[in-house]
Amino acid sequence: MTHVLWVKKKFYLADSTGRIVGVTIKSLKEGKYLFNSLPPDITSLPQIASDDKNINLAGNLLRGDSSKPMQGVRVNLVNANGDVVATTTTNEFGSFVFTNLPPDQNYSFQVLMPGMDTRLPPNTKIVLTDKNGNTIKTYYVSSDGKFHFQILASDTSTINHMLVDDTQLRFEIKNTLLNDQKKPMANTKINLVDQDGKVIQTTTTDAEGAFTFSNLPPDKTYFVEVDQNDPHLGKMKKLYLADSKHNIIRELNIKNGFKYEILASDEKSMGTIYVYDPWIEALNLKKQVKKDSLFIIENIYYDYQKWDILPAAAHVLDKVVEVMKANPEIIIELDAYTDPRGTPEFNMQLSQKRADAAVDYMVRHGVDKKRVTGKGLGKAHLLNNCGDPGIICTEEQYAVNRRSEFKITRKARK
Fold first, then answer.
1. Can you identify the CATH homologous superfamily of domain 169-273?
2. Location of each CATH 2.60.40.10 domain in the chain
3. Whole-angstrom Cα distance, residue 150 to residue 138?
4. What is the band of 141 on the pLDDT scale with cuts at 50, 70, 90?
5. pLDDT at 15
6. How many angstroms separate the CA atoms of 146 and 167, rounded?
């Protein structure tokens, strides 16, 4: 015999002993509900949340002692029954995100290397970090080469570190443009237009017809629009949008002005959802037609009065290195700042040592020294009132001013 317990807009299914064995995952018509089984270990059940909002979980996967991003690997989300309920692929920086998850269930994550059959060497070290690069857990690949990790609903500390708000999510469109013969269209201008007809981003396809639009709020309406006056079109009446393997996703025709509206239902087929990261925009700077510079502020943390590169700082700088290697045309100016505590002379010296440490890190990892400069500016240009007389700030408020600013500039195109 089972009993139903109503709590905070959800129904929990209990057996004759009072043990909770299921929770509603959606309501059906005529008072019927669909239940999902919960694990038999009641100690793994969470405290019933104060609200009923689904959650987003995000993180980064880094490999080995060098903590290099595991990019392009598939991550499956598996429920308590062993079913794959969602899948995603890590981006260039090893990041992944799963959205709209019930907060009171246990999740297992399976990591599959490209090719699906590739096994990781036994005892390979895998580091799971939060979206900011702070280590959450360290795992090691089992002897059979398989790798998975589990996030329990009761592990509130881990979940809290991996939580992201809807406002932090972004949508990336990464597709291929094909001509009427379903062959790649290279060097073709494409606009991303909002519902008011305003051009949001402009890019051109590469040699394989590929193009990317990134850093888009996923709750907006967009149109992909090919310039009808582009000489590459000739007398074509039809074009195709395809994925990286040239599987057709959508058809564009001249009657609609080679324009297609992207709906919410297209997000999985036409792109990916990820957590906002300015370095994604920097990585795609080379593909932008109208944009030649970018300004990024990062909180790169150091131990008090030290300038050693910590793991979280290294994670940020690894992104900078990846961006610079992917685009040889860009140069970077790095400005390092301190919080207002200490003398101006001390802070100026400390900030310069931190700037030098960051530049040295990038050069050691393959960046040409001529393409990156670092300057320490001490406690100049504070972002809050922590330097005002009589003001006492928290460590979090002081930390806002301990930042590095990156000015990314693309050399003039010939």
1. Immunoglobulins (2.60.40.10)
2. 55-164, 169-273
3. 12
4. confident
5. 52
6. 34
pLDDT at 154: 75
Burial (CB count <10 Å: 0-12, 13-18, 19+), residue 9:
exposed
Compute CA distances 117 → 74, 89, 108, 120, 150, whole Å.
11, 15, 19, 10, 21
pLDDT at 179 over 70: yes
CATH number of 292-410: 3.30.1330.60
55-164 CATH: 2.60.40.10
| Greater pLDDT, 103 or 190 | 190
Residue 129 scores a pLDDT above 60: yes
Single pTM value for the model:
0.69
Work out the burial of residue 98: count CB atoms within 10 Å of its CB; fewer than 13 is exposed, 13-18 middle, 19 or more buried.
buried
Q: Is 70 exposed, middle or buried (0-12, 13-18, 19+ CB in 10 A)?
A: buried
Instruction: Classify residue 166 by its DSSP letter.
Output: G
96 within 8 A of 62, measured Cβ to Cβ? no
> Which positions ≥6 away from 231 have C-beta within 8 Å?
none
Distance CA 159, CA 149 (A): 13
Q: What is the pLDDT of residues 347-406, one digit of tens each?
A: 999 999 999 999 999 999 999 999 999 999 999 988 889 988 888 898 888 888 888 899
Q: Rounded to an integer, what distance in angstroms lies between the CA atom of residue 121 and that of residue 128?
A: 18
Beta strand extents in 40-124 (DSSP E only):
55-63, 68-69, 74-78, 84-89, 95-101, 107-112
Q: What mean pLDDT value characterizes the chain? A: 80
Spatial contact of 23 and 35, defined as CB atoms under 8 Å apart: yes
**What pLDDT is attached to residue 112?**
75
CATH 3.30.1330.60 residue spans of the chain: 292-410
